[in-house]
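During the no-cost extension, the postdoctoral fellow (Dr. R.K.) reprocessed legacy sequence entries with the updated structure-token encoder. One reprocessed record is reproduced below for audit purposes.
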Amino acid sequence: MTQKEPFSNYTILQNTLASRVVLEDLFLRPVRYVGGLDVSYSKRGRSSTACAGAVVMNPEDWSVVDSASACLENSVPYVPGYLSFREIPVLLEAYEKLQVLPDVWLVDGAGIAHPLRIGLAAHFGVLLDVPAIGVAKSRLVGRHDNLPAEKGSRVPLEDEKTGEVIGTVLRSRTDVKPLFVSPGHRVSIETAPEVVLSCCTRYRIPEPTRAAHNMVTVLKKTIPSS
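Re-encoded structure tokens follow.
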């Protein structure tokens, strides 16, 4: 059996999940709380431990109103296009520990800007039927025009073959690398970058996902090395 053969059923599931993605603004506005999700690993390899951080913040002052974390030994190999199947279990475990839930989630990863339109943010959003936006630091798929250097600049991210708009390339800070923003679920393509930009202060990364990233960076260092 090759490494990719066990994922054949996952492709079927991805197509099913993708068909359930809703690209409409179905979340509370003005937003009261914004959530951030991130996953990191204790080491590289099949048997690495995955650490997830979930942070809920008040956008008025970016104070943390709730947070939770989880760690799981990861036995799923990395195969491009199937990353969400590695990360969803530990994200769900962290999510279940929260007492306060946000109106919208920002997820470190892709939304519909994915070969099958079901990146981590879309997978998470559809499974829980919650508003979610993918905020990726690198481009997984798509093409785009040149992006001006000023903060707030944006251009559409388009499918290379069909020209379909699948997200937005967003400059979250002047003269820094852009973010690749795509809706995951219950958020429109037009609104997703507006929400993300509103969460960017002094940094390239939005405050909620930056807080989640900082959490898992510390957490994974506590995992004993084998």
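The chain has one domain: 26-220. The longest strand covers residues 63-73. The remaining legacy entries will be reprocessed before the final report is submitted.
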